[in-house]
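Intended use. Records like the one below are meant for learning the mapping from a protein sequence to its folded structure. Do not use them to infer anything beyond what is encoded.
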Amino acid sequence: MIGNLNHIAIVVPDLAAASEVYRSTLGADVSDPKDLPDHGVTTVFVNLPNTKIELLHPYGENSPIAKFLERNKDGGMHHICYEVVDIIAARDKLKAEGARVLGDGEPKIGAHGKPVLFLHPKDFCGTLVEIEQV
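Structure written out for the chain above:
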């Protein structure tokens, strides 16, 4: 059911500084920041030959990653995203297998302009999983 690894997301306390580390120190292709008010984050993508790293920073007072950053002052890995061909079929199969879909269970449009869902970390070895339709 899951396809390629789409990205690994890392929450960072300083988006500009983190972007510069990837750009200058590691020599990576780094996108411009993009605010996603509906998701409560500002995101930057580090483009790699085989996947992406998503740098996340809280956007707005009700950001869902603000508490993560409070507990992890230096930031850290937040989630892993896998591609799926049909997000509704994937959701239904996952739910039938006992996985918990976060939120209202309906896909939202993510940072790439495609439907996404998040899956409960307790169902996936302690890792928050995002699935994205490709």
